[in-house]
């Protein structure tokens, strides 16, 4: 059985701090936040929370599971996540950018969180701009980051519950079948134990890891998740000579990249959200090559 995600987050961060000392300070800063997110996701997955039906016909039409679903179903979980996450987030955000006033400890009520969650899922930037204006002009990107940090663990809990019912439904798209977001990272699977006569599969199957809900799904190795480009002449790999298992997969057709880790070279297997903290140098290389990340994350937005 796999280790619980919160344990895997801690192990991954410890390993980064040990093997890549340049990241040790960052690990220290972000550990409490990331541990709390993983812990909340586990708590929600163990609760009797609202989970939508998986409709194979809808998925067949490329409509992800949460499309058009009201986030008011998750107001209790959003409130719990806000209560736990806001004090940690407040320590990382300058007072002048904090929503409401600098002393405001609970700037977002459940109904507002549900509204922002729906806006995030629907790609509706205007709602973030509108809500930000009502909060002492907090910058909309700050509000967006706060909302994502609160929504993420709730959707991760939902994704964990949906995992089983999604395993039989075919999905070959580059965006998440649950929440519709693009991947923050990809990985090649480890050798798997097949069970019969101790047969061992070769591994190396490509999976994408959702940037918002953390769901993992299989994807073709020869294709750009963002634009579907399969032309090998316009797709490129970059990596550091001493760490070939950590690489940048770039697509010249759409100008984006996604990081990819070969898990056959990793021991122990890293947790896929936490591992990104130790790969900022690859994002810097990609930026120098004028490539844009498929989706913005904390780790690919940090200026070096
Ligand atoms: Zn997702
Ligand atoms: Zn592309």
TrEMBL record:
GO biological process terms held by the UniProt record: protein maturation
Superkingdom, natural source: Bacteria
GO cellular component: cytosol
SUPFAM superfamilies noted in UniProt: FdhE-like
Molecular function terms from GO: ferric iron binding
PANTHER family reported for this sequence: PROTEIN FDHE
The protein's name in its UniProt record: Formate dehydrogenase accessory protein FdhE
Species of the source: Pseudodesulfovibrio senegalensis
